[in-house]
Amino acid sequence: MDHNTLREALLAAVPFDGAAIGNHSLLEKLRAHHPQLTDDAYRSVRDTLIGQGLIEKGRGRGGAVRRASASSSSAALELHETYSMTENGTALAALTQTAAKARTDRTFARTQNTTIRAERRSGAGGTLEHLEKTLWSTADKLRANMDAAEYKHIVLGLIFLKYISDSFAGRRAELYKRLTDPADDYYLGEADTDQLAAELEDRDYYREVNVFWVPESARWEAIRAAAKQPDIGKRIDDALSVIEAENPRLKNILDKRYARAQLPDGKLGELVDLISTIGFGDDAGKARDLLGQVYEYFLGQFASAEGKKGGQFYTPASIVKTLVAVLAPHHGKVYDPCCGSGGMFVQSEKFIEAHGGKLGDVSIYGQESNPTTWRLAAMNLAIRGIDFNLGKEPADTFTRNQHPDLRADFILANPPFNISDWWHGSLEGDPRWLYGDPPQGNANYAWLQHMLHHLGPVGRAGIVLANGSMSSSQNNEGQIRAAMVEADVVEVMIALPGQLFFNTQIPACLWFLAKKKTARPGEVLFIDARKLGRMISRVQAELTDDVIDRIAATVAAWRGEAGDYADQPGYCRSVALAEIAGHGHVLTPGRYVGAEAVEDDDEAFADKMRSLTEKLGEQMAKGAELDALIRQKLGGLGYEF
């Protein structure tokens, strides 16, 4: 084993979070992959790295080492200064310059590691957001010319592999502590090293706490140690294969495409180095939360990078939050028949935990027709420890319903808008079409009726659809809508601001349906939120948390769950079914909420017109003066007109 290979392996095996590792433990870890490693060779390389300031001595019996702090070497200090530059908005440029200057993969990895450690010291408030942006900027740079749609699976698959390995390592560390603690029920007594090692390999210990079993060859430290090898892609594919073989729940979910990834030489290894910096310590809970948030952030960034295609797997977070806030899915069965990457489920779990519930209070059911998106959803849920049933396979919701007998308590969905090629002859006379046969050229009312069919006796649904669904009367849609309104299954209608989506500029709305209304039967609440969006980029808008809270509070008050409800002109109004029928069962909120009240300034109309006319005259006179001045200046330059 040559000196440079050992140097890289040793440096990779030292914890990235600054924790110390004993010399004996480190040597054993290295020997697991390099059995011929001698004590003398280990000490030689260790002392070289200490002399270079890359690692330093730590405390512990038999000696220990840890990664050098940012102030312990000039190289680390330079990288710490690089991080400081990020506070002035030059993160990517600084990172790029540093990596280019170093011209080695080892310095690149140290750059990332120092950045992460510096961010941890900067405080919890802005750390996660900055971490996400730094990781994304660097990961995006590494993809070179690879299409975002392909690169997405490369990056997210590695984050998932890192997550299950971190969770496994966290459980293993916990077990070691318990097995060697005389006061613990798991205590093994006077077990020798071999017996303890064998006990730590017992799969049941991991499965009992919902942690995936990761074979030794697939653990992240093995992947990280091989990051610079030319066959790293095949090694990752092999790792995913053995993980699938050991964990039936992951069968056909992990996307093994690394050996054929069209990345420039060395870039996949650099990506492994980058993802190695995610996760602080061995706490499985913290690792899961952090990796889950990074995964969700990357999903959003890839959706933005892919533009129109991105909307196929990702619903903007503010829309998901609005659906969840209004429905409040706090228990029971939650279903999404077109679940994309699973964002509705993740947000539902967040809502439950934020309101005092616990993970597992809901059962997750989903379906997705796109195979790669189906895998994204499964990983997104698994990375958060959420149990799920996405059906046996990716399949079309209408023709190959994976949950035909399901009756859900809550349904949340963002189906594709106005899809025209959904019909199949087998759907003729389907029992789901209770309110009328949906037109074969548009699936909007097929989605609405599919969800009503799958609601339990007191279930509620929230669906995102194109604005046209609220008023269209083409091909039987008007009759279906009228039948739904008269059956009193439409509860709330919300008009949304424009530019909320990555993939379409079609204005959208939210339908909230109820199988059996428990409050205000015979009425529908209309909310016009078209003017409540906030632009977050030149082309993208969002609903802020304050707006979402306002909408949720309005609905809760209308239902009699909290506070007192009152109509607000221009924003919300409760309307009886008879009035809706008088408007041809059109459900556009703007038709019912009226105009926003304008404050009267008590100025007489004649006086106001006089003052406005005078002001207009002054502005026109000023405009004429400016026109004359422009002519004069141009004339002086020889450009008379």
Mind explaining what this structure looks like?
The protein has about 650 residues and is α/β, with parallel strands linked by helices. It is built from 23 helices and 13 strands. Helix 5 runs antiparallel to helix 6, helix 8 runs antiparallel to helix 14 and helix 15 packs across helix 16. About 10% of the residues have low confidence.
Quick structural gist:
By secondary structure, the chain is an alpha/beta fold. It contains 23 helices and 13 strands.
Count of strand segments: 13
Average residue pLDDT:
80
Major sheet details:
8 strands, mixed
> Structural class, from secondary structure content?
alpha/beta
Strands side by side in the biggest sheet: 5-4-6-7-9-8-10-13
Shape: globular
How many angstroms does the end-to-end distance come to? Answer: 84 Å
Radius of gyration: 30 Å
* Helix share, percent: 40-55%
**DSSP strand content:** 5-15%
The stretches of 5 or more residues where confidence is low (pLDDT under 50) are 70-126, 307-313
Question: What is the count of DSSP helices, taking H or I runs of 4+ residues?
Answer: 23
